[in-house]
C-alpha cells in the first residue's frame, strides 16, 4: 500500500475540492428557458478523456462527529482511500491499495479509524483461484493501517457484523480459518480491536453455519444454518447472550426471512415480508413468536421494497428503497429526514438531492446534487447554518456542459409484455432516424435507471441514439416481471432487446439499418449472442467483459459450497446452456465484433473473451480484442476507462458511422 506525500495528494485534489462555497445560483434555481426560439447548433463533442474521468469521489462516508469525509478519491488516474476535513482540506490521511484489490465497503469506527473491506483473487493449491476477502483499518491521525485477522487461513475473513457507536474501537468480525472442509472451514466470530488487531473469540464455529447475526449492542443473536443437499436454510436465534440457539424457521434458500436488524433492548427483529394483498411490508416482529409488533412501512400495490437504508453505523433502519411503480426511489422512515429531503427538492428546482451519509446525530450530512444526465456535485450540509456547501465536483470535465437528453420510454415486446427503457438522445440532435446503439445492462438481475451513465452519454455524444432496455428478468419491476426471465435467457430476454430496436425504428427515432449492440458482463453476453442469433439485425457487436460460454460460467461455481444453489439459479434461466452460448455458434456470426476485457476482472474471467477471440479468429471472422492488463470488471482506473471508450469510438466509427 504505497503512500503518496500529503503535498502531492493535496495538489491533485485541489482542482476538484470546492470547500466552503455556497450553492451556485444556477444550482439553487436553474435558469428558465428563453421565451424566444434560439437556433440549436451541434457543438463539437468533448474528448473521450472527459467521460473517462473517474468520479472525483465514490463511497463517501462522513465520520460520526461529521468532521471528516472518507472515500475513494480519484488521484492521478486511480482511486485512493482518502480521509479529509470538509472544513480544512489541508488535513488529510490517505492509503493506496494494490491494483488487483477491490474495495467492497468502508465504515467508520469512531472518529479516528476507518474500517475497509477488500477483495482479491488469489491462487490456491492445485492451481485453482478463489476470492479472498480481508479487512484493514486506517487511522486518520497516524496514516497507519492495521491488518485485521489476516492470520486466518480461510477465504472470507472480513464479514463485519457490528461496529460500536460509543467511541470504542472493538468490532465484531466473522472469518474462516481454512479453505478445506472441517471445523475451521465454518467461520467463528471475533471481537477485534481496529487499532491494533488484537482479538478474542465471541462465538465458535458451528457446522453448516456461514452467516452470523449480531444485535445493535454487539451481542451475537442469530446464525443461518445451511442444508446444501436440500437447498434450504434455517434461522437459529437466541433471545439473549448465554442462552441456547433455537431453530426458528427453515425455508428454501431464497425464501428464508433473514433479520435485517435485531434490537438490543428488546427481543425483536426487523424483517421484510409480503404484506396483505401482496403488498411488501417492513415489520418489527417478536423474536420468539414471529408475531408482528409494529408495521414500519407498507408499500402500495405495485411498489416493491427492494432494500433498506441503514444509518452509517448499520444499527438503525432509516428508510426503504422502492421499485416498481414507486414515485420515489427512497422513502425515509425518519420524519425529520423526510421533511429535509422534501426541502432539498423544493429549493433545488429541477435537480435531485440524495443524502448519502449522515453524522451520528444526523445534523451533518453529505448530499449529492445532480440531474439524470449530469455526474453532479457533492455538498456538505450542517443543520446549524442550513446551507448546502459545495465540497466536490464529481466530474469537472462534463458537469455544466451540454449532455444527451435522457427519458424513460415504454414499448411492447412481441408477446405484449410492456418493457421500460432509458433513451439518451445525442446533444443538440433531434431524435429522428438516428444511428442507434442498443445497450443492455449486466446482471441479468439488475436494471438501468435515470442516472448519469458515462458510457451512454459518451456514445450519445458521438451522434448515436442510445437505448438501454430493462428486459424481462430485470429487477425493480416486481417479482412477476423478474420471473418472466426464467427459462428465457437467450430467448425472450433477447427478443426484448431486439424489440427495443424495432420500436425505435417504427417511431422514426432510429435507423434500423444502422444499429449496433453493445454491452458489458451479462450485457456483453447479449451483444455476442445477438451477433450469433440475429446476424442480419446488427451492423456490429461490442462485448465488454462478456460471458461467451454459459456452461463454463456455471461450472465455475460447480465445486463451491453452494454450487447446487448457483446451478439451480442459472438452470431456471435456460433449459439448454450450450444452445444459447455464443462460443458454440461462431459460424453464424457475420458482423464485426469487438471484445474488451481486463485481466484483473474478479467477476467474469478474462478467459471468456480470450477463448471467444481465439475461436472467431480461427474461423476467419472479423474480430478485434482489446485486452487490458490492469483493468478490473468496473474499470476503476482512468487509463482503462479511456482505453475502453477510445476502442468503442473507433470501432463504431468504422463499422457504424454516425454521419
Examine the secondary-structure arrangement and name the CATH architecture of the domain at 405-655: 3-Layer(aba) Sandwich
Q: Count the E strands.
A: 36
User: For the residues shown, what is the average pLDDT?
Assistant: 86
CATH homologous superfamily caption of the domain at 405-655: Alpha/Beta hydrolase fold, catalytic domain
The geometry reads as globular
Treating each run of at least 4 consecutive H or I residues as one helix, how many helices? 12
The amount of beta strand, in percent, is: 35-45%
Tell me the distance between the termini.
47 Å
How does the helix and strand content classify structurally? alpha+beta
Helix content: 10-25%
CATH names the topology of the domain at 405-655 as Rossmann fold
